[in-house]
Amino acid sequence: MADTEGFEEFYTATVGRLLGQLFPVTGDLHVAEEVVQEAYARASVRWSRLRDYDVPEAWVRRVAMNLAADRGRRLQRQARALLRAGPPPVVPPVSVEALVLAEALRTLPMHQRQAIVLHHLADLPIEEVAATLGARTGTIKSWLARGRRTLATRLGEPEEVRSR
Fold first, then answer.
1. Backbone angles phi, psi at 38, to 5 degrees
2. Rg (Cα) of the chain, in Å, rounded?
């Protein structure tokens, strides 16, 4: 376990000041909080060394400023990439049926949901679903059957659909 004696006091005494310094740099309080917290997290694992610095707050400030700058550069790269890509394609509105299906799918365990989406919505053969999910084909068939039964019940499908 890391030697953190005195870190809590250091954090309490300095976090407000650093947050006040990073907020104007980032222009977003939430981003400033994330950056400052990440800097303190990095400081906490190095605290046994940092606490002997004349001004450990300066180290945390430098890390936070670097993180803010990195984030800014990353956002600029993303914005340039989006501009190069052009306007997004027109996406048709989501149907009521699609929303109902999405809600019903959320009730399934993740493995059943993944199998159903890959097989029935992405139209992948069972063998490819199995390879994608790292499971045997028999397991995928079982997940599909259970998931379809649950969905049929949730969506009020006729009995003959549930028995497939």
1. -65, -40
2. 26
